[in-house]
From TrEMBL:
Recorded family membership: Belongs to the MGMT family.
Record has DNA damage as a keyword: yes
Domain HTH araC/xylS-type: 10-106
Enzyme Commission designation: 2.1.1.63
Protein's organism: Eiseniibacteriota bacterium
Record-linked NCBIfam families: ogt
Matching Pfam families: DNA_binding_1, HTH_18
Keywords annotated in UniProt: DNA damage, DNA repair, Methyltransferase, Transcription, Transcription regulation, Transferase
Name listed for the protein in its UniProt record: methylated-DNA--[protein]-cysteine S-methyltransferase
Superkingdom to which the source organism belongs: Bacteria
Example GO molecular function: DNA-binding transcription factor activity
InterPro entries to which the protein is assigned, alphabetical: Homeodomain-like_sf, HTH_AraC, MethylDNA_cys_MeTrfase_AS, MethylDNA_cys_MeTrfase_DNA-bd, MethylDNA_cys_MeTrfase_DNAb, MGMT_N_sf, WH-like_DNA-bd_sf
Length: 286
């Protein structure tokens, strides 16, 4: 998907949610993003795998489940054998964390290749080394901005621009499935949190409180939220699946519209065809 198409979908999702009380029609939403109703419906369906109306139904259902859940999702996931690796459509993600010594040397003697590419969620900076993907950031970076961003995590690494290779990495990631390894630089606590995020099934959401309980630190909710916010590998380590306990989206370092778009894109992975839908919360009239 091109950046312009992603921008339209993100804008549409924002418009639908911002106007829930007004029950916007399909025509009104399509006009807000500059497309005809039929074209908008086709593009949204192709991108998200479900209609705009169905997206809102499922989003309301998922948030209701989060508020009503008696058993934390991550606890249930571990009991049912979903603990590792994390499933992302047909993509299996495994985390290789730096050792304490590697953390201290800040990437010295490490060769990190990087480049930009297009994804279903817009332009993305991806960086990788022999041990896996080290960074993913959603933004349209210049080369100087890309290097500055990567230096925050790998100050001493040898950074090498490889735009063609980066495009292939992203294409394989979103189109090819298979197994992907990520190599993350973080503290022991951050790594614990990121491993817990990989246990959240695709198409599901959980709360910061649930993540804190999952790592055995139920009173460390603020520290968990901070570690979630420091995730250096967008989407693959799915911090976008963590919401506030109330069901509110909370923050997202790559923008709340992108977080909404990611959740919409993943929902078809876990739709329950016979699940009752909270129709009083549906905001799109078609």
């Amino acid at each position: 998907m091109s950046q312009s198409d992603y921008d339209r979908m993100a804008k549409a999702i924002a418009y639908i949610e911002d106007h829930q009380g007004e029950h916007p029609t399909l025509t009104e939403v399509s006009e807000a993003v500059g497309l005809s109703p039929s074209h908008f419906q086709r593009v949204f369906q192709r991108w998200a795998g479900l209609s705009p109306k169905r997206y809102l139904q499922v989003l309301a259902l998922q948030r209701a489940k989060l508020q009503l859940r008696h058993q934390p999702l991550l606890e249930a996931a571990m009991e049912t054998g979903l603990s590792s690796p994390g499933r992302l459509h047909d993509l299996f993600v495994t985390l290789d964390a730096v050792t304490p010594g590697e953390f201290k040397n800040q990437g010295r003697d490490l060769q990190v290749r990087y480049g930009m590419g297009e994804t279903p969620f817009g332009s993305c900076l991806v960086a990788f080394c022999e041990r896996g993907i080290t960074n993913m950031h959603f933004s349209d970076f210049t080369n100087e901005e890309a290097q500055a961003t990567l230096r925050e995590d790998w100050p001493e690494a040898d950074l090498i621009s490889k735009p063609r290779e980066a495009k292939k990495v992203l294409a394989d990631m979103f189109d090819g499935g298979g197994e992907v390894r990520v190599f993350a630089r973080g503290t022991n606590f951050q790594t614990q949190v990121w491993r817990a995020l990989l246990r959240i099934p695709c198409g599901q959401i959980t709360s910061y409180e649930d993540v804190a309980k999952a790592i055995g630190r139920p009173s460390a909710v603020r520290a968990v939220a901070s570690a979630v916010g420091r995730n250096p590998i967008a989407f693959l380590i799915p911090c976008h699946r963590v919401l506030r306990k109330s069901g509110a989206l909370g923050g997202y370092r790559w923008g709340l519209e992108r977080k909404k778009a990611m959740l919409a894109w993943e929902f078809p992975e876990n739709l329950e065809a016979d699940a009752p839908l909270p129709t009083e919360q549906i905001s799109l009239s078609i």
